[in-house]
Amino acid sequence: MSVNKILSALADDTRRSVIMKLREGRISSGDLAQHLEISPQALSYHLSKLKKADLIYETKERNFIFYELNLSVLGELIVWLDALKGGADNES
Q1: Residue by residue, what is the 3-state secondary structure of 38-56?
Q2: How far apart are CA 91 and CA 42, in angstroms?
Q3: Which residues contact 86 (CB under 8 A, 6 or more apart)?
Q4: Which helix (DSSP H) or strand (DSSP E) does residue 73 occupy?
Q5: The model's pTM
Q6: pLDDT, tens only, 24-54
Q7: Domain tally for the chain?
Q8: Is 62 inside any structural domain?
């Protein structure tokens, strides 16, 4: 996990909106673009950043691409953030 890539990906409002929508479950790229009211080209750019950070993954079914959260990476980020703030598991 690259914390820098994850934090960079999450620094953008649109990408955080994508993450929040994906909390509800799997969604097609077309439906996601419509929900966020952005062009497919703009969405593609943001999805690429999120995929490079391993925050989301895609599955292809017929002519559609669906996106979902990669919960394992989110879990790793939570552990990292907890260590940063001095979580109970990291006390000496």
Answers
A1: CCHHHHHHHHHHHHHCCCE
A2: 43
A3: none
A4: helix 71-84
A5: 0.83
A6: 999 999 999 999 999 999 999 999 999 999 9
A7: 1
A8: yes
